[in-house]
Specification:
heterodimer; A: alpha/beta; eleven-stranded mixed sheet; globular; B: alpha+beta; Arc Repressor Mutant, subunit A
């Protein structure tokens, strides 16, 4: 071990990549360091699968690549993937019993792209079952070191949830169990856990990152994105992850990948930040409001202008989302029927009985709830009133954003109404749904959204500031976030008591 | 035009045909579509619906749909939508079928054909693209079912008519015409046994002028013969039910070729709610006019265009022209013969007569005809230049078909079938016949035409069939005048 290894996990992706390039540290020792941390901190419940042999093989290949001097942007940098991306080297469960022991014969495009950029995969990260949840309390999979499902814990307060559905991803970054990770965001599943765990995460414009190999929850909303400590690190990963994948994903956009790092340091003087009144209503807790207000004032100091805007259908985004996402999910999850792969009930009398038992045993309550809601809103006689009506309002929500972007460059507000809540505190599904209010509008519109650490609220828990940009303006968001992080140190703070 | 009534009932038939498109790969994946491979060897991750897989449209399948639309005068929708039809079945890997529901790619159009000599037109409602399911194999496993996903994701075009047909014959003729069109334009191999062209017939009966009766749908008619028997049986069955005072229940029925009967497999009460909704994995299918134009430029001359040209350029009756455009091969054969011999109507007669008869008997296509177009043209030329009679020509044709020889003139020579065109020799025979048949001569002179025919017959007999009948007529008349 070199003298660097003790603080390897404190390095940013950017700094770590530079140390690897200059051979101050090897990819193998870096990977081993993070594997050791992941195992030592297994009680956080972040990781659900490791494959040390595969990880170290990748690391050795990265070292060989580094030795040639032809390294990629991420060569040797260890990352981990949300367990919603299928992987050849690791099992893929989507947090569900339904896929216990499933091994994909192919890698997701996002996994492949990051590997092509040189990243080494540490393992797979816990998440809500099929990405359905806002607290990561819906995982049916045992984390590493456990024999049964166990709570995923927020490193800032182990009695609190990490957010969801990319809860394991957020915990891994916040606890320095990986320098950066992937997540997916359907209605806020990157931004909300990033906010709860005090890290940075970005969901790009719908269609930017390929959905091939991402186990589908709601096809018209699902997007992959990076989660890391800083906007600078997110930019590095996002540039590697995005780009057209037209042969595999019909919703992939034919838009060349950008180097998001190139615009990080642009001046933001004169940046018009739209502040939607609807994001600061009664439901917003005072501690979060105070932190977000302070963050906005920090932007004013940096030369930005605050512009009041309206997003009048913000509240409607909850019913619209909780009709459309379950509708798509009810159909997307039909393939889990016990016939071809995954769980199949042991005893059954006939085909229909096999289906019923398999799905009753394989799916958790929240997944079943959404399948039922989805089947209901698509059924004959209800389709027009629910599904079609929701689609119409979805278009209006997108139009509202376009009207707002006439007056501003970026929209800012809280990522969530509160800081992370106590484990088990929200047993009512509806209470969970309502907490998604600030992340749903951008998801429904297909817009890019970012959450960055903006301060602390009740109980010393992190508060996230959400930035929403117009289509393809990920560069603006990362630039604005980076400038904020140049002026503040919230993103550098770390939970106490977790050092290895 | 009045519909044929059966026991006072009018028959109403509409068709839904699944044409398997002749693409190399599947509609939403790159797996091959070839028939007959080992089970599950032609199913890729997408076809098996493995987690994370997504559909990507095969442009060739869309091209096939555009071709059909152009061939049948349909509207090609500039923007059509793929929907999910949700239901559980083991051979449906995703738990839903991707199909077009509200907005299909081909809209309207019509299919025209001859029923006997009467021209019929059946209006199309739509044709939409969809994927096929796999196959459940129940026979090979005791107490279990096997699933073969080779067929899953095979591109289909479902072609739906208006309820325009009024008899079994008309329905079968429609199906034959549609079969001709899809094979002619090359979008389907037309193999009914392998399931490349599957027809479902919606059949109902009613009193003339009354509202439409309740229909029953006969599924998967996989031969024209079964189609005929199944629809005939279904019509009789429905009429008997109604006559016996029972009402028809909407149902899906299967035809059993062994018993010749149809049997209900599910009734309307079992009808599933398919929860159709637009597939969020597939953006709307956009077909630009430039794409349509490009496909049109590559289209072969269509059967009805070619038939119209046969009428205009060769002076054929419309019936002949339609019959000769049953397939590209048939039409090309005719044109080769007609151009080589310059006798289009004779060529048509021979092809629709002798040739077709033999093709039917031997169950072969015209591409395998044992008399080639050049031979037939030569044969016709020898008839029209007076070298041989029609009777002699049939003998030559027999010999050619049997493979005894391949040169028309050689056969004529070898069999001594040349007509007697030497008037001196013929006059001598005629003189002999007149001398030997004074009775007939007398009767002819008394005005009895029959007697003349008898004399002609005698001359033909004496010439061993080689005399030219026209010439015999002329000479005989001159001598008896």
């Amino acid at each position: 071990m070199t003298s660097h290894s003790t603080d390897l996990h404190d390095l940013s992706v950017t700094a770590l990549a530079e140390q690897l390039r200059t051979r101050q540290v090897s990819a193998v020792e870096t990977a081993q360091h993070f594997l050791d941390r992941a195992k030592a901190q297994h009680t956080l419940g972040a990781y659900v699968a490791l494959n040390e042999e595969a990880t170290l093989a990748q690391a050795r290949a990265a070292d060989a690549q580094l030795a040639t001097g032809n390294a990629g942007t991420l060569t040797g940098v260890p990352i981990a993937h949300k367990d919603i991306f299928v992987t050849r080297d690791f099992p893929t469960t989507a947090g569900s019993k339904m896929l216990a022991g499933y091994r994909s014969p192919f890698d997701a495009t996002v996994v492949t792209r990051l590997a092509e950029a040189g990243a080494v995969t540490l393992g797979k990260l816990n998440c809500d079952e099929f990405a359905m949840g806002s607290a990561n309390e819906n995982s049916a999979v045992a984390p590493i070191g456990f024999d049964a499902p166990a709570p995923v814990r927020n490193p800032w307060d182990l009695s609190r949830v990490p957010g969801g559905s990319s809860g394991g991803s957020a915990v891994a970054v916040a606890a320095r169990l990986a320098p950066a990770v992937t997540g997916t965001d359907t209605g806020g599943s990157i931004r909300q856990p990033a906010s709860f765990c005090g890290i940075t995460g970005i969901k790009p414009t719908y269609g930017r990152a390929s959905r091939y190999g991402m186990i589908a929850f709601a096809s018209s909303l699902d997007q992959a994105g990076p989660m890391a400590r800083s906007a600078e690190d997110c930019a590095l990963l996002l540039s590697a992850m995005c780009g057209p994948d037209l042969d595999r994903d019909s919703t992939s956009l034919d838009r060349p990948v950008e180097n998001f790092g190139a615009t990080l340091n642009n001046d933001i003087a004169g940046l018009r930040i739209g502040v939607p009144a609807e994001f600061f209503g009664d439901g917003l807790s005072a501690d979060v409001r105070a932190a977000v207000d302070a963050a906005l004032q920090e932007y004013v100091k940096l030369g930005a202008k605050l512009v009041p805007i309206e997003l009048p259908r913000t509240e409607l985004s909850i019913p619209v989302y909780y009709i459309l996402a379950p509708a798509e999910a009810s159909s997307n999850l039909s393939r889990f029927d016990g016939v071809k792969f995954g769980h199949r009930a042991k005893g059954y009398t006939d085909l229909v009985d096999m289906y019923k038992k398999t799905r009753a045993e394989g799916f958790g309550d929240e997944v079943k709830r959404r399948i039922m809601i989805g089947a209901y809103v698509l059924s004959e006689g209800y389709y027009d009133a629910y599904y079609l009506q929701a689609q119409k309002i979805r278009r209006m929500i997108a139009d509202d954003f376009q009207a707002a972007f006439q007056h501003c460059d970026v929209i800012a507000g809280p990522a969530a109404p509160t800081v992370a809540w106590q484990l088990g505190a929200k047993s009512d599904p509806l209470a969970n749904y309502l907490a998604d209010i600030y992340t749903l509008p951008a998801s429904l519109a297909g817009l890019p959204g970012l959450s960055l650490p903006a301060g602390f609220g009740a109980g010393g828990m992190p508060v996230g500031l959400q930035l929403i940009g117009n289509y393809f303006r990920e560069g603006h968001l990362l630039n604005a976030a980076h400038r904020f992080q140049q002026a503040t140190d919230f993103h550098l703070r770390q939970p106490a008591g977790l050092a290895l | 035009m009045t519909a044929k009534l059966i026991h006072g009932y009018e028959v109403v038939i509409g068709f839904e045909t699944h044409a398997q498109l002749a693409t190399q790969s599947k509609i939403f994946s790159r797996a091959a579509t070839a028939f007959g491979a080992e089970p599950n060897t032609q199913a890729c991750a997408v076809d098996m619906a493995l987690p994370g897989t997504l559909p990507v449209m095969n442009k060739k399948a869309v091209e096939c749909a555009i071709k059909l639309g152009l061939a049948l005068g349909s509207k090609i929708a500039p923007r059509s939508i793929f929907a999910r039809k949700n239901y559980f079945y083991p051979d449906l890997p995703k738990g839903y079928q991707i199909s077009q529901f509200e907005i299909p790619v081909v809209q309207g159009g019509e299919v025209s054909f001859f029923l006997g000599e009467e021209k019929k037109t059946v209006r199309l409602e739509r044709a939409h693209l969809e994927e096929d399911a796999g196959k459940s194999l129940h026979e090979d496993f005791i107490g279990q079912s096997g699933i073969d996903l080779n067929r899953a994701g095979t591109p289909l075009l479902e072609i739906v008519t208006q309820p325009d047909m009024r008899s079994t014959e008309e329905a079968v003729a429609y199906a034959r015409e549609l079969h001709k069109v899809v094979t002619w334009i090359g979008i389907c191999d037309g193999n009914m046994q392998e399931g490349s062209f599957r027809c479902d017939a919606n059949v109902s009966v009613r009193k003339p002028g009354g509202p439409l009766g309740t229909r029953r749908e006969i599924k998967n008619l996989n031969s024209f013969k079964n189609m005929q028997q199944a629809i005939d049986y279904e019509i009789r069955w429905q009429i008997e039910e109604i006559e016996d005072g029972r009402s028809i229940q909407q149902a899906t029925v299967l035809f059993n070729p062994d018993t010749g009967e149809t049997r209900a497999m599910r009734t309307k009460e079992d009808a599933a709610d398919y929860r159709y909704f637009p597939d969020p994995d597939l953006p709307p299918l956009v077909v630009a006019q430039s794409w349509v134009d490009e496909v049109r430029a590559g289209m072969p001359e269509l059967p009805r265009q070619r038939a119209a040209r046969f009428v205009a350029d060769y002076g054929l009756p419309e019936y002949d022209a339609t019959t000769l455009t049953q397939s590209q091969d048939m039409a090309s054969y005719f044109e080769a013969v007609a151009q080589a011999c310059g006798q289009a109507k004779l060529a048509s007669n021979w092809i629709m007569g002798e040739i077709s008869r033999r093709l039917n008997t031997e169950e072969i296509g015209i591409a395998d005809a044992k008399v080639g177009s050049a031979q037939l043209a030569q044969l016709i030329a020898r008839i029209s230049d007076g070298t041989i009679s029609n009777n002699a020509a049939r003998q030559v044709f027999e010999a050619l078909w049997a493979g005894e020889a391949d040169n028309v003139d050689a056969v004529i020579e070898a069999k001594g079938l040349k007509q007697m065109n030497d008037s001196g020799a013929l006059e001598a025979i005629i003189d002999e016949v007149i001398a030997a048949n004074p009775g007939n001569v007398e009767q002819y002179r008394a005005g009895k035409d029959k007697a003349f025919n008898a004399l002609v017959g005698q001359v033909m007999k004496a010439s061993k069939g080689k005399a030219n009948p026209g010439q015999v007529n002329d000479l005989l008349k001159a001598k008896l005048a």
